[in-house]
Design a protein that fits this description.
The structure is a single chain. With 338 residues, the chain is of the alpha/beta class. It has one domain: P-loop containing nucleotide triphosphate hydrolases (Rossmann fold). The protein has helices at residues 38-42, 54-60, 69-101, 122-133, 154-159, 174-185, 254-270, 288-311; strands at 33-37, 110-116, 142-146, 191-197, 202-211, 216-220, 246-251, 320-324, 330-336. The strands form two sheets. A seven-stranded mixed beta sheet has the order 1-9-8-7-2-6-3. It has a two-stranded antiparallel sheet with strand order 4-5. The two termini are 26 Å apart.
């Protein structure tokens, strides 16, 4: 998968201005993004109020993800500073707008959407941003909502003939997710969402996650950045990303994501799959070669088509793109100009 955000011939690279402030690599005027190489991006913020520790990063890190304290320092600390600025400005605008309109309606959460492929590291990034953003004094209440809870249950997927399409847009209870976000953005004091278990690979009946008017809500999932469908009658269709104030896409070459997926499957086979409660317990004793072949089959016949048809096309809709290299570390950051 080749990433094309930079259109035309780029101008000369400039790392810093005369006053010492960092500015992004020069891109052609027609590009909607500012482009930062890793070192340029890392120089944008020197500290957060309460930096994370190695223990924090170890707790947050997902299986197969190479994120380290150095990666947090170089990439996610500046990102948390940028997101904090955006959230603070949004809350300030709400307050002054309320004064102008003589409207005492309370603030609604600043909603950040995070999208990208299976195994690209979305969940780790989401958990990391929760930790970092909560350390800023003006956004102490940050919550995370994975959209997995809005998947149809395995039984419903089977009834609908969608078992092999799990993770595709049609496998989600889209209307329920839209209602949830409308309530959040409508200022509801308490909004419930269904819970999903990755161990059981299914919805947990009767269990809910509760969102209680946080300063920031992070919504993470495969297809969260999708736009409206293309049929004329869908022109006024409301989509999940309409409720986002800021959106992030985690990107990498498909050949790398495929390898990460297979490696993660083999690691889970050694760990989580060993639990009798795991949906994938049957694969715990499978020989390594057979397990790798099965993971490759699932990638090629399920995850790759979903990535190419539904997920990757949403990349250009993101406010910010984190581009990872083969080592799982962010190499470049693309930030939309407006």
């Amino acid at each position: 998968m080749h990433f094309e955000l930079e259109t035309g011939a780029a101008g000369p690279r400039v790392g810093t201005c005369d006053n010492g402030h960092v500015r992004p690599t020069t891109l052609p005027v027609e590009s909607p993004y500012l482009s930062f190489e890793r070192d340029e991006w890392a120089a944008l913020a020197s500290s957060t109020p309460l930096p994370l520790t190695e223990a924090d990063v170890t707790r947050i890190r997902g299986i197969g993800d190479a994120i380290s304290l150095a990666e947090v320092d170089a990439v996610y600390r500046p990102l948390s500073a940028l997101l904090n600025l955006h959230a603070h400005a949004s809350h300030y605008l709400h307050d002054v707008r309320g004064m102008f309109l003589r409207d005492a309606t309370s603030r609604t959460p600043y909603v950040i959407g995070i999208g990208g492929s299976v195994a690209v590291g979305k969940s780790t990034v989401a958990r990391l941003l929760v930790e970092l953003l909560a350390r800023w004094p003006n956004t102490p209440r940050v919550q995370l909502l994975p959209t997995d809870g809005f998947l149809y249950s395995n039984a419903e997927l089977a009834e609908r003939g969608l078992t092999d399409r799990k993770g595709f847009p049609e496998s989600y209870r889209r209307a329920a997710l839209l209602r949830f976000l409308a309530q959040v953005k409508g200022g509801a004091a308490r909004v419930e969402a269904p819970k999903y278990s990755h161990l059981r690979y299914d919805i947990l009946p009767g269990e809910v996650a509760v969102v209680t008017q946080p300063d920031i809500l992070i919504v993470e999932g495969l297809n969260v950045l999708q736009g409206a469908r293309t049929r004329p009658r869908d022109a006024d269709e409301v989509v999940v990303s309409d409720f986002f104030d800021f959106s992030i896409y985690i990107d990498a070459e498909e050949v790398d994501i495929r390898r990460w997926y297979v490696d993660r499957f083999l690691e889970l086979r050694r760990t989580a799959f060993s639990s009798p409660d795991s949906y994938f317990h049957q694969y715990a004793t499978m020989p390594t070669g057979a397990a790798a072949a099965f993971a490759e089959f699932v990638w090629d016949h399920v995850n790759s088509p979903n990535l190419r048809e539904n997920i990757a096309p949403t990349r250009s809709r993101a406010s910010l793109v984190l581009r990872k290299g083969a080592d799982h570390l962010v190499e470049r950051v693309y930030l939309r100009k407006t």
